[in-house]
Amino acid sequence: MSVYEELGETSRRQILAELRSGPKTVNDLCSATGLKQPNVSNHLCRMKSRGILECSRQGRNVFYALASPDIHAIIQAVFSVGPRPGQSCRCDSLAKEFLQAAISGDETAAAEVMGRTFRTEATLVDLYEDLFTPVMRKIGQFSLDGTLNEAQEHAASEVVQRLMAKAVDVHGQTRNAKRFCILGCAPGAWHTIGLRMIADYLRISGWRTMFLGANVPLRSFMTAVIHGSPDMVLVSCGCSQSRDATLELVESLTALRRSGAQFKIGVGGSYAIAQPCEFMDSGADFAGVTLREFVEDVLPRHLPNLVTAAPA
From CA 178, how far away is CA 307, in angstroms rounded? Predict the structure, then answer.
């Protein structure tokens, strides 16, 4: 049984979303999703054969339902993108297991741990903030003190990034989004995972994003902003070596705003968390926030008219 595989397909994802509220007939699901009856029936048959759904007959009608409380918890968590107050998932007991799997490059084992976090009704923010981020910090510490070699560090980072992609596929992405954010790193800055986590959250919450990645030349970054006309520009500064280039980028973005462009500027990353005032003094609207702080505080405060409510 792979609930995540089924959620990755658009039509089955729609059907599973409808079944959260209780058993439905084929006609019910056709009306709710707009899918054709043969397609709905085929998808239901497939998911029933995989143990994800069960069915029962009441008179002439056949009702389909989620097959177990565990499956219901996973589906419910997937469609609850935003964090719920006081509902941070308890990932401490899973982090050690996930860390070991990531270091050894065992994506299958790491994916199984990720699946267990969803069964605790963890949201995407919970998963990123309470599991992936602490693990990546540990990997960084181990790399600095020589506990890990470079191959292990790269293997672990690749596992985390591939599982992030799977998590986003499960949640789905909003099409025809009207909000736009450009994200990237200044020249010499290479740490992108935290920035990608924010990009993932924005995409499934109703934003269009342009992820420029690491080590972007200043002129290229500015050209993307000038032509893109974003609502927000996010930059990552993960270490002191990329400080000067990031400050130069923030100053250039600030100068662009003085010429009439309208967008918010944010700076994240380990160095920005330690020294947020440097970037604020250079013109950033916010700096050094975690993903959860970005979701709960920054978006409502700085872009109240652009915040998209998380899907229920």
Answer: 11
